Amino acid sequence: MKQLITTVAIALLIASCGTNQKELKTKNTEKMESKTELTNKEKSAALLESLENGDKSTIAYINPTNYKQHNLGVADGLEGFGAVLQNAPEGGFKANVVRSFQDGDYTFSHTIYDFFGPKVGFDIFRYENGQIVEHWDNLSAIADVNPSNRTQTDGSTTLTDLDKTDNNKELVKDFINTVLVNGGFDKMGNYFDGDNYIQHNSMIGDGLSGLGKALEEMAKNGIKMVYEKNHIVLGEGNFVLAVSEGQFAGKHTSFYDLFRIENGKIAEHWDVMETIAPATEHKNSNGKFNF
User: Fold this and answer.
1) Which of 32, 80, 200, 246 could disulfide-link to 227, CB 3.0 to 4.6 Å?
2) What residues does each domain of the chain span?
3) 256, 288, 270: which is closest to 139 by C-alpha?
4) Nearest to 132 by CA among 162, 153, 102, 95
């Protein structure tokens, strides 16, 4: 079973409408006109949570004739949705959006799901003229609390420092490229306030000391985490999401890292790592990234 949570949610909404694409486009236009007061990030959160509450009106947020899918386990466009409906479980799904942000035409959300077991994920949507035209995601099973007794989704949700968005994005981009991609671990201290660092990765404890201990333990077990390329950095205020590509334990991996910035330093971190399926299993040719 591929990690198709968001796509199945959208598919179920489409199927329940019982309309062809032309009729659906008309309904979308009518509903969008009545919901112009919502921001794009509010639309994204509502769409994701309709997975649980069954709000069919959120289908209006999707462009019915121009929708590109980057979940590699799903065929492109609306025609890909029917193929995943057969995997829908009895009893429905659950979805709780913990954090949702927007950056220009993009939104990014941090969500807890229940779909064939508890999962956590990040979803990115791109909008044109108020409708979703493109989607990316990273999903994984929910793990136990980490060595500092933190979960993958708890912690701060307060959005601040909107005037510092660009500076905070630049800080994270520099950290990803300097430290994680190019291996400049001797420069780690430039990005943190000493050992004051809240960690939500399920394998790592708080602080740079917790990170060092985890890396040392992985090295002992022959496990390597390698960042090869950063594809995009999105941010709103004090929250910044970086999407990168690399290797984890020898497997081609997509890294989604969410950071909270405080006083110009990285203060908190959440992430989701997903193994990228081999090309022979891809159901669309859009690529996992291609922003």
Assistant:
1) 246
2) 5-142, 162-275
3) 256
4) 102
The residues facing 138 across adjacent strands are 122
Q: How many CB atoms are located within 10 Å of the residue 255 CB?
A: 24
Bridge partners of residue 268, in order along the sequence: 198, 260
- pTM of the full structure: 0.87
pLDDT recorded at residue 115: 74
- What residues contact 100, with CB distance under 8 A and at least 6 apart? 41, 42, 44, 45, 107, 108, 109, 110
Average pLDDT rounded to a whole number, residues 9-34: 47
Report the C-alpha gap between 155 and 203 in whole angstroms.
16
199: which strand partners? Answer: 269
Two tokens, residue 93:
């799904």
Residue 275 φ/ψ, nearest 5 degrees = -70, 130
pLDDT digits 0-9 by tens, 223-247: 999 999 999 999 999 999 999 999 9
* The pair of three-digit structure tokens given for residue 12, joined into one six-digit string: 């179920």
Residue 75 is encoded by which pair of tokens?
A: 């065929």
In CATH terms, are 5-142 and 162-275 the same topology? yes
Report how many helices (DSSP H) and strands (DSSP E) the chain contains, helices first: 6, 10
107: closest CA among 121, 126, 128, 122?
126
Class of domain 162-275: alpha beta
Yes or no: is domain 5-142 CATH 3.40.50.720?
Answer: no
pLDDT at 85 over 90: no
95 alpha carbon, distance to own chain's centre:
14
